[in-house]
Amino acid sequence: MKRIALLAAAVVALGGCSKSEPHPSGKGTPLQSQVVAAGSIAATGDLELGRRIYNFRCYFCHGYSGNARTLAATLLTPKPVDFTSISPNSLSRERMLQSIQSGRPGTAMMSFASVLQPNEIAAVTDFVRHEFMVAKAENTRYHTEANGWFNHQRYAAAFPFALGEIPLDTPWEQLTPQQAEGKRLFMTSCVSCHVRARENNEDIHWESRAVSYPRNQFSPGDNPPSPNAKNSPPVDAMTSATPYHLHDQPPKLEGLTEAEQRGETLFQQNCAFCHAADGTARNWIGSFMEPHPRNLTKSAAMDSMTRTRLRTVIREGLPGTSMPAWKSVLSEPQVEDVIAYVARAFHPLPP
Question: Which residue has the higher pLDDT, 15 or 158?
């Protein structure tokens, strides 16, 4: 359950950041137009600012075309809004502005008040309303030469699986030779992004694994055994191929107290998912979260940290970030054990 809670926090954080598009630069211009009439929105230069923000911040959950057909959407309850299925009359601009500004309690929709400027919130709201709710447009075609996809047509046999026209779990014997070749192509070239596609049996979860990531079934959130445990096998990886694996290794410490040993177990089973096993937050999940989890080894982030403040942050969480409240998960003695381990393994804390 602890892993699930953190995974949910990670999904929420990843929904707000992505490396697929450059960060929208500049603060834009004041909105030149509001909703003109029901079903009609003026297209201004701010809509392109909204497009850039949407493609950077929102697509992970809501999809490039606003239809919420993404991997993240399949894992979230309630589901992200499918903007293509609603009209501007059924979802007001004011409510959308409020949702982006303050988030939606009980959902994965986070507040972007600390991430976007007011004019950026207005721009992305008007973009969504114009592009998906009124025009029912496709937004951004990702597989273009400008994005490095030359001759994307060579993957044509795999298109029916990426578009959900053929369920991915269709038995091989029911596929034509061309369809079977398309499925093989999809599974070797497309599945890393089009992870879920369409399935007849929704209980089947197709595994997504990054190329060059540590092997032997390792994935973000799996914690390597404690380096102080006997017969602890190393995680198999090509460290030169990924900068993240280096931070999935806990520090090797000797002479830990009983409290520090208990804290090590708790930290590596829970906190390392975001803060990395070495406390740097430079693992895969930590590198994509925004704001990034605290680097527990960095003096600039920890010199002003006290045990009292750290205790409060662990118990109550940290507003505006993906740091959840742990008071319903960890007991007070367990919180103290985690603090003892952090002070020993990553950065000294005053008594």
Answer: 158
